[in-house]
Amino acid sequence: MNRPDPNRVIEERPSKSQRKRDSTALQDIGAELGELSKERLAKVPMSERLRDAMEELLRVTKHEARRRQLQYIGKLMRDEDVAPIREALDALAGVSRAEIARQHKLENLRERLLEDEAVLGEIASEFPDADLQHLRNLRRNALKEREASKPPRSYRELFKVLRALSQPGRAAEDEDGDFEDEIEDE
Description:
mainly alpha, Diphtheria Toxin Repressor, domain 2
């Protein structure tokens, strides 16, 4: 009788089903990348081969051709480090922990500014290119809107300006309205 040696370590390969799930997951990430604009896609770290394949996906319009291109992208992504790509996608979607923490910090800064105008000095030291007069006007208008129970237009605009200041590369995107407004708790 041949009994297996209990001390022998058996290296198991992933099952065919697991490999298929992994491949489909990579294709799904490729599909998410394919939905991004060229400007946002340029911000995602990836190899040149994958970038070229993504640009080709943006040009392809026929259903079957897109499906084949997504399969090819999934194949190329097997050689990629997917973690930085996933992080970049999460940051663009606003769901990464760092992005959420940044948004909370900006929301707190906005609230502190509404409570005390002296916070403008802190903003000026942290963001030297800040337009303090514009921020002062937005603060004043936000307070008036709050008192009159009007829609918080200036309140939201204040957040957008602070967000643009905290990440200058996103200032143009904020003006276009590509990012969703944060959920107001009022």
